[in-house]
Amino acid sequence: MKKRLILASSSPRRKALLNFITESFEIHVPDVDEQIDEPDPLKLVSELAKRKAGAVAAQNKDAVVIGADTIVVLDGRILNKPADEADAAGMLRLLAGRSHTVCTGFCVMDGESSRMIAETVETAVTFNPMTDAEIEAYIKTGEPMDKAGAYGIQGFGSKFISDVSGNYFCVMGFPVSHIYQALKTIGAL
C-alpha cells in the first residue's frame, strides 16, 4: 500500500505543479526557521528543502513528504522574496536586461525510514530591458510580492523574459520531472 503524500509548502504554484504528478496529496505548511547563514545558493536551498520536509515528516511517519525552496541569484547576490514594493522595484531594476540563475532545492523524505532524495536544480533566465514605468506597472499587479526575485515566469512577468536555459519549472519552484523521478525512486508512486 502506498503511503500518504504530503507537500510541505503553502505555495499555490507548487500545489498546482504537484497536481501534474498526482492529485492524491495533502498540504502541511512547515514551521521552520528559514534564516540560515549559508552563502552558497545551492547549499542554502538544499538545506531549506530538507528542513521543510523533515519538519513535516517528523509529525507524519506514515507519509512521504516533499519540501522545496527557491532563490534567485544575480552576481552572487541572493534575491529572496521582496520585503515591500520598493524592494521589488530594486530587484527588478537589477534583473532588467541581464541574466541570472534560479536555484530550486527539493527533498523527498519517507517519514518512517527518514530515507530521502535531495537535489538542486539550476536554470538561467534572461530579462529584456525594462523601463521604470514597466516595473511600476508590474508591481501594481501584485505578482512580484510573494516570489523570489520579485517576478513570476508563469504570469505577467513572462513578457519581460527573453530566454530560459534549463528546467522551466525550476523557475516556478518545483522542477516537476526531477520530483517525479524522486517520488518513483522512493516508492511513493
Provide structural commentary.
- This protein has 189 residues and is α/β, with parallel strands linked by helices.
- The protein contains 6 helices and 7 strands, in the order βαβαββαββαβαα.
- Strands 1, 2, 3, 4, 5, 6 and 7 form a 7-stranded mixed sheet that branches.
- A hairpin with a 2-residue loop joins strand 3 (63-74) and strand 4 (77-79).
- The protein is elongated, with a radius of gyration of 17 Å.
- The relative contact order is 0.19.
- The model has no long low-confidence stretch (mean pLDDT 95).
How many strands, which pairing sense, and closed or not: the largest β-sheet? 7 strands, mixed
- Helical run tally: 6
Q: Average pLDDT across residues?
A: 95
Characterize the overall form: elongated
Query: What kind of assembly state do the chains in view correspond to?
Result: single chain
Number of strands: 7
SSE string: EHEHEEHEEHEHH
Fraction of helical residues: 25-40%
Estimate the strand proportion. 25-35%
Radius of gyration: 17 Å
Ends apart, CA distance between termini: 10 Å
Structural class: alpha/beta
Ranges with pLDDT <50 over ≥5 residues? none
Features:
single chain, 189 residues, alpha/beta, seven-stranded mixed sheet, 6 helices, elongated
Task: Characterize this entry briefly.
The protein is of the alpha/beta class and 189 residues long.
Describe the secondary-structure layout.
Layout: E1 4-7, H1 12-18, E2 26-27, H2 41-59, E3 63-74, E4 77-79, H3 85-95, E5 99-110, E6 116-127, H4 132-140, E7 161-165, H5 168-171, H6 176-186
Parallel strand pairs: 1-2, 1-3
Antiparallel strand pairs: 3-4, 3-5, 5-6, 6-7
Helix pairs in contact: 3-4
